[in-house]
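Re: folding output
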Amino acid sequence: MRRFAIVLALAVPAVAGAQQIVPSARMAATADVLGAAARGADALSVNPALLGVGDRSRWSVVTGAPTLSWHASPVSLADLSKYGGKTVPDAVKARWLAQIPASGAQHAAADLGATGVAVAWRGFAASLQAVAGATAALPHDAVATLLYGNTNPDGTPATRSFTNGNASAFDAVLVSVGGGRRVGSAHLLGSNVALYAGASLKSVLRGSYAAAWNVQGTSTAQPVTATADFPYMYSNGAPSGVGVDVGVAAVASTWTLSAAISDLVNGFHVTPSSMLASDGLASVSAGSVVATAPEVLVSSGALPAAVDAAARQKISDAVFARTLRMAGAWRSRPDLLLAADVRVGAGGGLQRLAAVSAGVGAEYDWKSWLPVRAGIRNTRDGMSSAVGAGLRRGAWELDASTGVESGVAGTAPVFGVSLSWGGPALGGSAGQ
């Protein structure tokens, strides 16, 4: 009889490395290092070769609600939120400004990721997912101007200038299809193994990209003036392209080794002919406001040379960064699964990835009905750690995870909840 598995998942992606979607709470509970243990619909986002492993007649469905994380540093969002809609005391202003180095900046970031729905059957899968991210950096003197205007903390007139402010944001709704199948067998590491290969295609249904860079300005109190230069651009139409992920896996009775290249072909394309940009010049003085620099297509050649060159470089960098993910999972005994994961790539990209990221994790069946999980890995600007547990009863399993991820914009929570029905939890075995 055909078995049917449904997983309802609410999972937050890695937030300071952003925008890589963690497909289920089970994966999130190990800081997303169970790459070699993904099965069913989970595998489409991790390694499409693993779609071919296991009972190919079993359906699996994953669905998740959008989740948003935001964080700031060195002044935290918790500090800022205390004074929402209120007058900020002078002592608090002074403390906030003292936290930001004179040559540094206030950083902020926000990330969203969700699996709308993913369905797998007979080695094939399709999914609809959303991902978005935003970052900003506000220089010390720009923060001082926001807090005190054209005066010093003691009320005396002040002249300030700042440079190197920046911000960027993107969003994308992705549709993916992929498949995996067994392609052979071999004898490896003293075990008979089955070999699998797979690939997936993903396309941006809708999305956008925007950036501002080298934001600089000057303000004076006598006379009252302010000037600002804020080059910016934004997409005039949805990004295009079809991305490609590929993967292979070797699966034995107690272990799996896998390797996958995500975004072998980039699927997020913005071009100079699809981006509107401006030099963003403005000045304010007593009784007048002057704004110049109209918006033009980057491809028009009408931008100042420095702005044109910076805009084209940012367009070139606005891609889903290619990453090689190598993972292993070993069920050393029936109640213990050990996992490791290493990712290597150019780093950066829209996802703000680390050039090299490594992590380890474990899943232990403390009781037959109570699996517990934990994991840790490094990110581009810090570390990610998580723990979680599940409750099993018959064909049902309820999983939950919680953790933190640190980075240049501070520390943000990571959490997830998932419910599965219709057989063992997806990816419950390291082997075949």
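--- second protein (sequence, then structure) ---
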Amino acid sequence: MLAAVKAVKRLIGGKDDAAGLQQQIAALKREGSEASEEIERLKRERALAASFEEAEETDRAIARQMWITEHCAIALPELELRLAAVRAADQAAALARHKGILVALYPRLKQALFAAVEAQHEVMAAREAACREIGEAAVSRNLPNPAYAGFLMKDSTKFGAARTTAFLATSRANRSRPQCRRRCGPHCRRGSRRRQSR
């Protein structure tokens, strides 16, 4: 019955770790709970004792269980404080580790962000030049606007890139279609039939 208490005594001088301390605390709580239940059982047994001598023997057993409960009550706060200290140290180590990872990654992110800013500046300048030459309405109807103004998230960036790529692919396909002399537009079938008849 005292196995948990003995285990705590043996481990007191060793290096603390969260898992070990949690096991010790759980064992100590279980030991204290079992001792409390045993005290109640022994009290009932003492009341039914056939003689004073027999009751005295039961008193000694009760005293042993009371010592266990008192020992657990004193040992538990110490173990819980040690567990809190271990958790604080583990958290500090984890924070330092993750900070190191972020610090190592940031130069690559910074370089990519500045490169993206320069590329976006060139795209916006090209679009402004197109607006000055052929007008904003024509540019809005016929040219894509690949400038990116959202957060750099994978899903949103992938969606915007796919939309711009599709627009550019459609524009290239339209430019490759034959047009008739009446200039009906790229979807006119008359020019296509005329080219085929030749």
